[in-house]
Here is the input.
Amino acid sequence: MITTKEYSGREIGLLPGEDRRRSQRVIIRVPVTLLVTENGKEVKIAGHTVAVNSHGAMVVCPRSLDADTSLQVVNERTNDQADSRVTRSPRESSEGFLIPLEFTSPSPNFWQITFPPASWKPTEN
Here is the structure.
């Protein structure tokens, strides 16, 4: 079953289990660059986050990447880099491809934001 979450005034589809997280997710748009090695050459892919947490992010990019692709994600606001991997096959959306990324190790300070406590629950409107 696919459920939905609101993003920028629109609803986006979430896959089963996507709302069960190891850490709180924050909806925020952060410009990023994905650094991927293809055929021995570094390729830069510009994108932005849809949601972030201390374990990774959902990123929108103009092209898809295969599941389990290793890469570095660069936070363009801070120039910090983190080793990451694509956790599953991306889905196409109206903005591009939704690419789920997981950091190689948790990086709670990578996004330079304060995450809500694990017990926090959003209020229903």
